[in-house]
């Protein structure tokens, strides 16, 4: 296993943040026993940190593994089957620094109907640029898969569906959210679920008015400065679960 030697204090901070991100996403009901969050090791590097195969709520710094963009590592502990989601998005998108893959409950229904997930909330302006695309695994691998993205080829197809966007759904499975920082990716994953709840409720009441792409872009710039505020309170909520876990300063 690689050590922290030579990586400096920011490396330790990055690892701590990734542990906290795992705990926050569980606390916010985005991840459960499944799903995962990763961070690119540094801008321009073709490597990322991701937990070994473990429920996100149990992840500590000792569980983090560095993978290359083929999904390989020097660590012999069992990896997540779907690490190719992360690898191929990092390969296609040099701007992406973090990826969340979740099965969050209210997002999945939008992956199986004709009504696209769209921004109904100013907090989810990152969803307003376009109707959120849906990855159809049958187009790449036929009608008898387990729906999991378990190869580079499937990861590439998903990354193509995501394109230059922020979020893509995966039919009958879940979603991915990406951003230029770990904290922003966590924010987007949480608010993708919040927006899905609001949109589903709005659809039950009538015909929603969606944010225009221009409103979304403007709102996203404003909210971009507020991500730290969300991170702060979400972090505080999970602090107790980190005590004694080795998640900080390991
Ligand atoms: Mn999955």
Write up this protein.
This protein has 250 residues and is of the alpha+beta class. It has one domain: L-fuculose-1-phosphate Aldolase (3-Layer(aba) Sandwich), CATH 3.40.225. Helices cover 38% and strands 13% of the residues. It has 7 helices and 7 strands. It has helices at residues 9-27, 83-92, 138-141, 152-162, 182-205, 213-224, 227-242; strands spanning 36-40, 47-51, 64-68, 98-102, 134-135, 167-170, 174-179. The chain has a 7-stranded mixed beta sheet with strand order 3-2-1-4-7-6-5, with helices on both faces. A hairpin with a 6-residue loop joins β1 (36-40) and β2 (47-51). The radius of gyration is 17 Å and the shape is globular. The model has no long low-confidence stretch (mean pLDDT 94). It binds manganese (II) ion. Residues 34, 82, 101, 103, 173-174 line the site of manganese (II) ion. Manganese (II) ion (MN) binds next to loops.
What name goes with the CATH superfamily? Class II aldolase/adducin N-terminal domain
Round the Cα radius of gyration to an integer and report it. 17 Å
Quickly count the domains. 1
Individual helix count: 7
Low-pLDDT runs: none
Number of extended strands:
7
State the CATH class: Alpha Beta
Distance, first to last CA: 15 Å
Task: Provide the residue-averaged pLDDT.
Answer: 94
Main beta sheet, described?
Answer: 7 strands, mixed
Helix content: 25-40%
CATH architecture: 3-Layer(aba) Sandwich
Give me the secondary-structure category.
alpha+beta
Shape: globular
- Bound small-molecule species: manganese (II) ion
Give, in spatial order, the strands making up the sheet with the most strands.
Answer: 3-2-1-4-7-6-5
N-to-C series of helices and strands:
HEEEHEEHHEEHHH
Fold-level CATH name:
L-fuculose-1-phosphate Aldolase
* Portion in beta strands: 5-15%
What is the multimeric organization of the chains shown? Answer: single chain
